[in-house]
Amino acid sequence: MFNSHFRQLLFLQIEKIEVMLRCRLSNYFCDKYGVMGYEDINNFAVPIKTFSTFSDEIQKEIARNARSPFVKNFLQNYEGEKLPFYALVEVFSFETLSKFYKNMKNKDKKAVAATFGVGYTYFESWIESMAHVRNICAHYGRLYNATLSKAPRLYKQYNENGIPSFSIFSIFLTLKHLLPNDHHWHDFVQTVELLCEKYPSVKLRLIGFPKEWKEYLQQKT
């Protein structure tokens, strides 16, 4: 029961990042390269084979959503029967969105990451890891006592304090740096605390939470 409730709380926070990234990435990419810029390999920093494979994945995403009204509208009524990027991102899974970002040029990654206030090497790692955890949540997987196969790259101060990057708590730390430090975030931290108190048999170390976990999450960045 703890795992179920814990998973739902975390999923809602990751969803916020996913929505924000869709919007900011779409706005930046369309403004710089045009709404069909995703078709041009010159707008990315990947070899032809990688670009071709990813383009195929994009077409599969479109095919899976072909019955969606807005997708059908673009395919039937717009020139070339193709989706502009601002519409295309709406059919991307978080994992595909993460791959798209990873394939971008470093200067473009840097610009998008800057809107979140972090460096692009960290941001790339964080969203890849979040996409992995998001899939665990969406498929009713286990987060309690779980080890992340795609661990985020943490800031030096966390590593020096012994916080493992492969723990679920590492995802909480990345969320803290990406989401606004406002009453919504503080309400979330308080809700997590109440959940832990509701299930006293839960061992916080098995989700990577240190004793001072609240202080870590409530510190201003």
User: What's the structural domain tally?
Assistant: 1
Mean pLDDT: 94
Q: What is the molecular shape?
A: elongated
* Main sheet record: none
Number of helices: 11
The low-pLDDT segments are none
- Helices and strands: which structural class? mainly alpha
Characterization of this structure:
With 221 residues, this protein is an all-alpha fold. The protein has one domain (2-218). Helices cover 62% and strands 0% of the residues. It has 11 helices and no strands. It has helices at residues 2-33, 48-64, 69-77, 85-88, 94-103, 106-114, 120-138, 156-160, 168-178, 183-198, 213-218. α1 (2-33) runs antiparallel to α10 (183-198). The longest helix has 32 residues, at 2-33.
What is this structure's SSE topology?
Blueprint: H1 2-33, H2 48-64, H3 69-77, H4 85-88, H5 94-103, H6 106-114, H7 120-138, H8 156-160, H9 168-178, H10 183-198, H11 213-218
Question: What is this structure, in a nutshell?
Answer:
The protein is mainly alpha-helical.
Question: Tags for this entry?
Answer:
62% helix, mainly alpha, 0% strand, 221 residues
